Amino acid sequence: MTGVASYPPRVVPPPGGPPGAPAPPPPPPTATRPPASQPARTGVWIAVGTISMTFAALTSAMVVRQGAAPDWRHFQLPPLLYFNTLVLLASSGTLEWSRRRIDSARGPAGVYLTLALGVLFVAGQVVAWRQLAAQGLFLATAPSAAFFYVFTALHGLHVLGGLGGLTYVLHRLRGGGSTPAPRAALGAATLYWHFMDGLWLYLLVILVTRV
Amino acid sequence: MDRPADQPRVAEHAPPQGFLRTHVFSLDHKVIGKQYLDLALVAVCTGMLLSWLMRVHLAWPEAPIPGLGKLAPTGAAGGVITPEYYLSLMTMHGTIMVFFVLTTAPFAGFGNYFLPIQVGAEDMAFPRINMTSFWVTLVAFLVLISAFFVGDGPPLSGWTAYAPLSAVGKDAGPGQAVGQTLWAVSITLFCVAQLLGALNFITTTLDLRTKGMSLARMPYSTWAWFITSVIGLIAFAVLMPACILLILDRVAGTSFFIPAGLVISDRLQPHAGGSPLLWQHLFWFFGHPEVYIAILPGFGIISHILPVFARKPLLGPRVMIGCLVAIAFLSYTVWGHHMFLSGMNPFSATLFSVPTLIITIPATIVTLLWIGTIYGAKLRFTTPALFCLGFVSVFVSGGISGFFLAQPSIDVYLHGTYFVVAHFHFVMGVAAMFGIFAGTYFWAPKMFGRMMNETLGKWHFWLTFIGVYCVFMPMHYLGLAGNIRRYSAFTDDYLKPLIPLHRFITIAALFTGAAQLIFLYNLIRSRLVGPKAPDNPWQATTLEWSTTSPPPFDNFAGHPPVVSRGPDEYGGTGPAGDYVMQASAP
Amino acid sequence: MGKLFAVVVAIITVVSTAIFLTHTWWLPVDISAHGHAIDHQLSETMVSSGVLFVLSQLALALFVWRFGDRKDGRPIKTFPGGVTPMVVLAAVLVGAEILALTFVGAKVWAGVYQTPPDPNALQIDVQAEQFAFYFRYAGADGKFGATHPELINEASENYFGLDPAHDTTARDDIVVPSLVIPVNRPILLMLRAKDVNHAFYVPELRIQQDFVPGLVIPLHFTATQTGKHEIVCTQLCGLGHYNMRAYVEVMPEEQFEQWLKDKASQQ
Prior knowledge:
Radius of gyration of chain B: 24 Å
Structural class of chain B: mainly alpha
Oligomer: heterotrimer
Order of helices and strands of chain B: HHHHHHHHEEHHHHHHHHEE
Number of helices of chain C: 5
Distance between the termini of chain C: 75 Å
Shape of chain B: globular
Strand order of the largest sheet of chain B: 1-2
Radius of gyration of chain C: 26 Å
Largest interface: B-C, 107 and 100 residues
Strand order of the largest sheet of chain C: 3-2-1-5-8
Distance between the termini of chain B: 31 Å
Structural class of chain C: alpha+beta
Shape of chain C: elongated
Number of strands of chain C: 10
């Protein structure tokens, strides 16, 4: 997996092959290391691992807490969350679109759109909190509400971190989009953003089924 | 930040200009490594002073300590430590030592300095994240220390902070108000910092190795830091949310860890439904791997240094790596052995006991590999070598008691006693400290460009080695005699006959602690005026010895080495003697 | 230097082992029915791990003595047989030791903690609080009154939160600050915590168990000798933790019945 994979598959002429000559066999997969090792991408994968662990710990805490006492209280999630979900999914789409068109001039446009949608998502989550608060459901009202706020807040913080990362990538893209480094950074940021999507879908399932 | 390897290896960030960027907010992994080590030095002095106070109080409960009355007017009026204040001292001692010494020095400190050099990289993968990691650690430390100076004083619920004592707030006693909150905030920050650090370590090891540096050729210390990072990445990712939930219980009125119907200080607590055991499970899921975070870098450092002074390759290099990986994996299956008597299902005690005992197999093999390496060697008794040998001895002594505590049927008697104190101090305190000392004497020439004094170093070793046995071996006897821990003032009960043994330990602890002043003096003096160190004073082979002492800004002055050999080719014939450098031509 | 190291390690090993072997400091007398199994398991572990301890330390000392500062000019030698036999041997030996310890140890543990209490056991309620233990006997009716945390009142000595005004079973409950039990009769303690974690530890009874707020934890044992011993809290419970102690007094059966009658008449 490389961060700059292109889609739809373009036929890239093998480098070095003289025109007309039978195409040389594709180079064997690199022996020890990928030709362009990408610390940014590795770093994001590691972050994905550790963030997953954090939410796994919280999930198990929720299961234990729910079983510990009969005071679990189910409540209706604000329907706004589903709209927010769509916003977040859309932001992932625009980022993916942008990543695949990074070589074109329109490339960064998708990143801007993603930034806007990301901010909208976070704002939407805040509004959802306020709706819950208006119903009298605060952090300390019920254990289910406590976990709802903890999950959404932690996820929101990670999304905000992603927005910061995207801004940084954008800054570097404008500094010279064709060099490999910002492209790799965009690839890594996209990976992180998709993970935020996946994580949110997981949380939504957890919240819908348990809260 | 993300330079592909096929580009020329130039530092992404230019050499810094100005004092602030060079020495304070530096992105250079070497400066950050030294900052971590200096922080650990401050922390270890603090932690050791606290242990002195505790030991004096245990042996002579009525003895006034000059000056202490001014520092802690409530906890030690007139300089006499109260049994209550003893609990605060113990809590702070444990927290400082476990987090800010045993995690920062061998892992974050030496790891930051030497991991990139040992794999032939010119810096960590993410220098900015690396710098952030240090400064967050520093803030965490300051937040923790500030607990000494807030109104009610430091927390007293131990480094394990068992809920609900740690969760209910000021009703649980002074120190459980602001002090405990500061504790929880500090640990949360510390987790974040270590996660950022681990991310850097892993990425650097995976992606920034120089040409020829295959995994099999990595030095054992690099392997250990890498494996420790993986452990930390999982462990701190669990402790962090646990601490967040604890903070919420304390300040936001939630009930994650506080059950219904608690009456504390005559007040029915406004909480319901929480689970105290949940905190213990989350804490120990972190807590046991944390023990290995403290000791595995020591394993790596010893395996790295011992061959240098044995002039012989490590016995069974692949077995060593395999054992480290096995220990790391098993460390996640054993947390329940801290909770045999906690009220969890007794059947699960048996389940947790088995992997705990199984860990002794790789641990035994690792020890035998070190001892087997010494067989047939040509040992050179430098100070770092002595600390390596001492490490093997104290690690055996500490590990053996694990056989007892791993069995619930024996733990039922020993769990609350000094036997446990002896066990974890030997194995993760003293052994880890010996690893740190070995590393310091070994790498100081590289880090500071100056040699440390060998005579002082040897005095330091002998006094420390004999001292720690006098301090911690008798604690086993105390434990067998039923002397309970986390407890002071044994003046009027069944523990009174044990006071003479406590006095012996205290005197030994004061002497051993004073012997550390030799180290401190040696360290500071050699940093300032020690004789200039050659590039490779120990005739060692790994990449840090291929560069200058201290290394230039980008470690290899723009010429990253190409590696063609394993990390410990000693005992043969090479151009310069009985060793071949990793970076020498094939 | 190598010889000095070897000698120091050998001295440390011999002295510390000798102190263990001579029982200079050792477990207090065992007054429980199950304790001998624990003591036996501890002795077995002491022997097997002691052998491992002595062998490892002495091998270290021996090799350091033999191979330190070698001036003979001979080349280095690898360990006889290489690494494989050594690793296999270590794994087999330690593995066998572990297997043996687990097998016997699990039985001992199960015998104490996983067996149901004797149906005729004398049940006593224990409430741990900062920083005291209180013990409750059912009284003449053999029934314990229900507990209500909101009624707990130190001033009126209602430590358990009983409601004698409405609850007839609570009226004859006997609440005392020290544990009095008959010898040779199974005892079942029900451990509850009023505020934070505590622990119940009597070294002579070879029994230790945490109190956990929100849980009622059963603990059963049989005392086999009369006498008076200290109960200490071994779980850090706050400011006065060092002061949290009580006594367990083991009496002959008749004396115990008399004591119970006396207490009941004082209610």
